[in-house]
Amino acid sequence: MSETQEYTPTIIKAEELDPKFKYKLSKMPGAEKLMLCFQCGTCTADCPISRFSDFYRPRKIARMVQLGLKDRLLSDDALWLCSTCFTCVDHCPQGVEIAGIVRVLRNLTVREKGVMPIVFKELASNILRTGYVYQIPESRHKRREMQGLPTLPKPNLEDVKKMFRITGSSGILETVQTFDKVKS
Ligand code: SF4
Ligand code: SF4
């Protein structure tokens, strides 16, 4: 914030708070330690995305979860900016897994709001179609061969399809709505 900018406080209404939210979330794998966050800010200071974004702040996400601001969190496309680099997890003095909390919040957004950025849908569709996150062109395979690198393992697409079906991911990919821009 520059010296000339005025500070605008965020107004939170009591009816926005869901006091049970933090307890529900802390039962989900990856978010178990969210109550241990004491807001030191190390995660935000070290997060590579926060360095380039005006509003992506992992510390703030942890606080919003503790306060129970579920609707705000699930409608905030900032959630999709996390690159899952795990720097925050490595550096948190309390062992809070912010990257895990973000993953849980993304899953809830997909389940309850039925939306995700188009790029995430495309990556998941690639896995379902080819077994790889990115489609690997034939030229890349040839280059590997020319350089004496081993051929890439052939994915078992039947197993991949089965995994998508059992986890419900195939159904999600068919019905999920997408948006194409995540503000930075
Ligand atoms: S580093 Fe850990 S304790 Fe500190 S604000 Fe981030 S999540 Fe909370
Ligand atoms: S995992 Fe996400 S929140 Fe944590 S440091 Fe990396 S980009 Fe930031």
What does this structure look like?
The chain has 184 residues and is mainly alpha-helical. The chain has two domains: 16-113, Orthogonal Bundle (Fumarate Reductase Iron-sulfur Protein, Chain B, domain 2), CATH 1.10.1060.10; 116-184, no CATH class. It has eleven helices and two strands. Strands 1-2 form a two-stranded parallel ribbon. Helix 8 packs across helix 10 (157-167). The two termini are 16 Å apart. The model has no long low-confidence stretch (mean pLDDT 93). Bound molecules: iron/sulfur cluster (2 copies). The site of one iron/sulfur cluster has 13 residues, from helix 3, helix 6 and helix 7. One iron/sulfur cluster binds next to helix 3, helix 6 and helix 7.
Looking at the structure, what is the overall shape? globular
Number-wise, the strands total 2
Q: Strand share of the residues? A: under 5%
CATH homologous superfamily title of the largest domain: Alpha-helical ferredoxin
User: Helix count, per DSSP?
Assistant: 11
| Rg for CA atoms | 20 Å
Contiguous runs where pLDDT drops below 50 for at least 5 residues: none
CATH topology of the largest domain: Fumarate Reductase Iron-sulfur Protein, Chain B, domain 2
Broad CATH class of the largest domain: Mainly Alpha
Number of domains: 2
Overall helicity: 40-55%
SSE succession: HHHHHHHEHHHHE
End-to-end gap: 16 Å
Main sheet attributes: strand count, strand direction, barrel closure: 2 strands, parallel
Bound small-molecule species: iron/sulfur cluster
Q: What's the mean pLDDT score?
A: 93
Gross CATH architecture of the largest domain: Orthogonal Bundle
Give the oligomer, counting copies of the same chain as homo and different chains as hetero: single chain
Q: Which class best fits the helix and strand makeup?
A: mainly alpha
